[in-house]
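Page 42, continued from yesterday. The earlier attempt failed because a stray header line got pasted into the input along with the sequence. Redoing it now with the clean sequence only.
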Amino acid sequence: MFSKEKLALARRRKGFTKKYLADKAGVTNRALTAFENGEYAPSDDTLAALARALAFPVKFFEGDPFEELDEDGVSFRSMKRMTAGQKHSALAAGAFAMEIDRWLSARFKLPEPDVPDLRGQTPETAAAILRREWGLGSYSIKNMVHLAEAKGIRVFSLRENAQEVDAFSLWRGGRPFIFTNQEKSNARRRFDMAHEIAHLCLHKHGAPNGIIAEKEADVFASALLMPADTVIAVAKSALTVDDLIRLKPRWLVSVAALNRRLFDLKLTSEWTYRGLSIEISQRGYRTSEPHDYPAETSRVWEKVLGSLRMSGEGPATISSALCIPQEEVEKLVWGLATIGITTSATPFSSSARRAELRLVK
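This time it went through. Structure tokens are written below.
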């Protein structure tokens, strides 16, 4: 049976207006509106034309609709720079990720969520509580993706054409999800991960996407990545950009983030902070991090895809099982794992043995 919801979902994922898709598929705008409103279904030929225009398999538009994300329950890393089309496209990618996660959860044993509800705590206190509960002490966090996955957070990538789409997070069915932009520097991706963990802990189940919530998440992320005691002990004499560059590898953060943390801890004056901020911008370090760190990859996705490859399968297996384009699957894991070449698109049978995927801390 034709799914009007899936047609609208695919169109939003592509970022197409109704008029653009109608013109591309050779149908009238009125007809496309009728299809999406459920007034009547397209003919087989028309559906094939729509599928070609969207680069989706025809079978995607059949069956039950995907459960879409409610934007009120999603915490975006940045709202002010995104257009409505970019936001809807990212949310559509999230809907695909939910289906992929259900597919994986039925076949692999993944870590259970261990993310405390810290609503009501100040960001600095919440970060300290989380460090204690997760057994991090005052040590630097070597890999944010590994840490998040070990605590049952599902991590997916965003490979969007728009830099405005930074990251977002949400709770769905009792499970936390984080989506990160893989086009940014690795230092900033680590901060984005910490920022989204803040939303999951502080603003659980749909906090307002306002300036206050974003500032709270930034403070939490800074405190989580750079514990106050170690920064005070080590970085109190950092008064130049070169000092920041020398010290930042201790916490694997950006020069800008370390500069801000020193100011927030009152280790530098406002005059020093502003002067360093200006020089950081002048050196181009806002967009190109000096001495950036190696990209952080996913243990879960490496093991999942490794298991599939052992059976002669790969991303095409997931694509075939869910009837979504393989490109969409690969975008959601791009940068998190080596995708490799698939030799078979045969999905798992219902009797497939569940694989044990236990992360090593």
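Notes: Strands lie at 74-76, 108-109, 154-158, 167-172, 175-181, 355-356.
Reminder to self: strip header lines before submitting.
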